[in-house]
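tool_call: predict_structure(chain=1)
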Amino acid sequence: MIRYYFGNKEGLFETMVRETMMPMKKKMDDIFNESDHRNLFEFMRIYYHEMNKVPQFPRLVAQVMHMPPSATQRRLFEKVFTDMGRPDHDLMFGKLQKSGVPA
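tool_result:
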């Protein structure tokens, strides 16, 4: 079944990470699209709210990030975080630069 739906175990792992992070990503997109000085507070509030739903996830992240950089799980986590975080990162720092904060 794993091979049919996800291709392999790595595909299942990546899908689990993406689906766990997606509700937080959607809410973060909403707050970053609003130009508001409370965005950092909202980001942290959403993070803790979403992580309370899956309390094992932060521990899994810590365990995976302590693996060697060549470990498949770590590479998949980094790929997902980069894919999901890059647009928000660019938007947030773009707004800071427009407001006069040096890079």
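agent: The chain has one domain: 2-97. Proceeding to next step.
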